[in-house]
Amino acid sequence: MTLKDLLSENLGVDDEDVWENERTPTPVRCFAVRLHSMGLSVREVEGVLAWLGVDRCYQAVWNWKEKLAETQSDPPTAEPSRVAVDEKQIEVDGEKKWLYAAIDTDSKLLLEVDVYSRRGTDPAAAFLHRLTEKHDVDETEFLVDAGGYLTALARQELSGQLNYSERNHIEKWFQTVTMRIDRFHSFWRGSQSSARRWLRRFRHYYNRHRSNQALDGRTPAEEVLN
């Protein structure tokens, strides 16, 4: 059996997919959204589906990635003991923005990711507040690399320390985004909200579908849930 036959069989594509509610995460739609999260453009995803014998137009693939975004986003709730937080400058539609991310250093779970118009104590505090709404971080120790984060942590009544040696995984995550995702090499072609939606889908892929060498091939979600 060829790779093409294997993929087609596992996707289980049939005409009923056309008539399903567009928010229904059918196998072919999840596959398409996952390809897009891995860095393929909508046109490239359309081409892969055509190669597999799935006749879906550009607009259909676009609708899937937009309407399935919410069902592809949330990571499992975690109670991390140590979390590394950092930010990286990117460009969104030609304007400088800041990409914030937080990773559980044990499970490697990408807990949260967001885009802000500037860096500093206020956006850092807002980002940390989002973490408190989704995860149990009351007893978590945050590993940061700038004093401004300590002020932001104090605002949220969280504890942390300056740490420059145990933050390797979050640095590697930013490298993964930079190296594997073309649109972050220079700038994001779209609005800030579209960048956020794409990052949520990438977070879903990273947590639930990308095996991690440090976890013996398991995904971060599997590490947390098991």
TrEMBL record:
Gene Ontology MF terms: nucleic acid binding
InterPro entries: DDE_dom (IPR032874), RNaseH-like_sf (IPR012337), RNaseH_sf (IPR036397), Transpos_IS6 (IPR047930)
Domain DDE: 82-171
Pfam family, one: DDE_Tnp_IS240
Function (record text): Involved in the transposition of the insertion sequence.
Identification of the protein by name: Transposase (Or an inactivated derivative)
Native source species: Halorientalis persicus
